[in-house]
Amino acid sequence: LTYWWCLQHGESDNNVLGKIGGDANLSPRGVQYAVSLARHMNAQQIPDLRVWTSQLRRTKQTAQDICATKEHFDALNELDAGVCEGLTYEEMADQFPQEFAWRDQDKLRYRYPWGESYLDIMGRLEPVFLELEHMENVLVVSHQAVLRCVLGYFLGKKPEELPYINVPLHTIIKLTTEGYSCRLEFIKLPV
Ligand code: G3H
């Protein structure tokens, strides 16, 4: 029986504004979450805890107060929305109606111009999956689209289901694996 954890960064300023992508800081609520997350993790005194974050500010800030060895990976960065980075979905529909419609038709394969698709993320996560399969005591702090891929992979979901998996905000997801089966536990923290 082995277990590890994954979670989304706390609420960011771009989350509040409804903007896609970017490299925003945590919102005041996100900062509060980072504090209660550190309190929760530190209280458990997990031996040799390691924290993996993306290279973006919001995941680093979320993990900031956790006592652990930290590493930052490009592979854990959020889906690159290319020309749509920094837009709201409304602005995207307005400025790039054809792109918006294509994405709606095939969210798994749709690649933003100069950006990525969910399938691209699955590709760049491959080395991460290989490591996670025989790791313990790792806490992965990443982003919604990336964590959908991570959960989908470990739960054996169909590729088409990936872009729609629910990854709740301000919630620690504990994954326990036993052989080929994987169980999830959701720990919602008060913010
Ligand atoms: O922009 C990044 C979001 O996490 C992706 O969400 O694929 O539902 O647009 P979405």
Summarize the structure.
The protein is built from 7 helices and 6 strands; from the N terminus they run βααβαβαααβαββ.
The helix/strand order is EHHEHEHHHEHEE
State the end-to-end distance: 31 Å
Q: Taking Cα atoms only, what radius of gyration do you get, to the nearest Å?
A: 16 Å
Identify the bound ligands: glyceraldehyde-3-phosphate
**Uncertain segments of ≥5 residues (pLDDT<50)?**
none
Q: What percent of the residues sit in helical stretches (DSSP H or I)?
A: 25-40%
Question: What is the 3D form?
Answer: globular
Total number of beta strands: 6
- What is the arithmetic mean of pLDDT? 96
Structural class: alpha/beta
What share of the residues does DSSP label as strand, in percent? 15-25%
* Spatial ordering of strands, largest sheet: 3-2-4-1-5-6
Largest sheet: 6 strands, mixed
Count of discrete alpha- or pi-helical segments spanning 4 or more residues: 7
Protein name: 6-phosphofructo-2-kinase domain-containing protein
Organism: Dryococelus australis
Family: In the C-terminal section; belongs to the phosphoglycerate mutase family.
